[in-house]
Amino acid sequence: MKEIIEQLLSAANLTQLLVIVLAAVTGVVAAHFIRAALARSALTGTQGLLARVLRGLGATSTALVALVVLLVARGLLALGGDRPDIIDTGIQLAAVLLGVRLGVYLLALAMGPRSWIARWESRLSLALWVVLGFALLGWFDFIESSLDAIDLIPGKKQFTLWSLIKGLVVVTLFIVVASLVSRAVESRVMKITGLALSTRVGISKFTYFFLLGLGVLIGINAAGVDLTALTVLTGAVGIGLGFGLQAIASNFVSGFVLLMDKSIKPGDVISFTGVTGTSTENFGWVQELRGRYVVVRDRDGVETLVPNQQLITNPVINWSYSDPRVRLKLPVRISYHDDPEVAMAVLVEAAHCNPRVLREPGPVSRLMHFGDSGIELELRFWIADPQEGVNNVRSDVNRSIWRAFRERGITIPVAQHDVRMVQLRGGGP
């Protein structure tokens, strides 16, 4: 080690070390200005190919500028007759950093901006570059032997710190691969219009969880842990599922049941009243089917996370299960002084005020019964798009009925009771 330090501190090698430091500083400063210029450009905010190339240039600018500076410095030293061995090593490290940064950027681009790789892009690139740099400099074997000498679980079966790190790396790699493969499968399956939407989502979710579980098992095996030794752990997990994790397991299984039986799928209009009819309580649209819950968005823009088990065990009204058409009923009361035949004709005419009311089957009116305060009528009509709202149609039709009744002189009586006081002869019973 002393000889290596003395060799590095020689005049020629010290010059090359300063050149490498200068190249690194130049790369960092140049990358700062390049990224600032790209951030001010409106083009980088788009999703086109040129915008992605520019963002990739900003991500790799540090390594790219440092590599160019080192190549120029090597050429100048070679002209002077010096042997640029240290600069050659710096060039290799800069090239490795450029390749790692570009690879991680492409991986984050493939997995989407919301993936964990996109959030940890810089840190992950630095970690991979350090590992590959140690391997390039020949320091990796020393680090591996040092970590392999640290036994975490003393006993008959050796489990070292190196085995733990290796297992974590393998599990992480398989998680990344599982995410990429499941995303590719999802993009292909979603284009198959012959399959129901719930079936396509189910295939995508099953692929992801299967590959994820396989990756974890392979990672544990790579760490040197015998899988047969996990029987105690799996038994404990089974007991935990029977007690504390019962609800989570139930929601997870219920999610796959919903995907397979196609009872609820993204885009359906549902409500949780538990009664039949066209009630608008808890009215919303199914946005996503997740492993533990279903995302339902109401007309106020509020997204409710409904556990899958609730959709399995409780009655749910699916307004668009087989036929999106629904029938709405509007009760109307008229006075006994008015002609019910004329009022019923006015109701049918008023229903056509909204273009969403279907002409086939057309609206009808019915005389339901003779009440205490007036004649009870009912207007019935159909709409084919309940996802666009129900109460707005009710409001439009009610307003049209009010205007038509005022034009025709039809009155809507208010509930009232007459009280008669009778005085008996003799002043008493």
What strand line-up does the widest sheet have? 4-3-2-1-5
Structural class: alpha+beta
Provide the gyration radius in Å: 37 Å
List the total number of helices. 15
What is the average per-residue confidence, as pLDDT, rounded to a whole number? 76
Count of individual beta strands: 8
Helix content: 55-70%
Please state the overall shape, judged from the principal axes of the Cα atoms: elongated
Helix-strand pattern, N to C? HHHHHHHHHHHHEEEEHEEHEEH
Termini separation comes to: 126 Å
Runs with pLDDT <50, length 5+?
4-8, 275-280
Structural overview:
The relative contact order is 0.05. The protein contains 15 helices and eight strands. α2 packs parallel to α5. With 429 residues, the chain is an alpha+beta fold. Helices cover 57% and strands 11% of the residues. The longest helix is centred in the first third of the chain and has 30 residues, at 11-40. A hairpin with a 3-residue loop joins β2 and β3 (293-297). The protein has a five-stranded antiparallel sheet with strand order 4-3-2-1-5. The chain has a three-stranded antiparallel sheet with strand order 6-8-7, covered by helices on one side. Among the domains are: 2-138, no CATH class; 326-408, 2-Layer Sandwich (Alpha-Beta Plaits). It has helices at 2-8, 11-40, 49-59, 61-79, 85-111, 116-119, 121-137, 140-148, 161-189, 197-222, 231-242, 246-261, 308-313, 340-351, 391-408; strands at residues 269-271, 284-289, 293-297, 303-307, 317-318, 326-334, 364-370, 375-383. Residues 4-8 and 275-280 have low confidence and may be disordered.
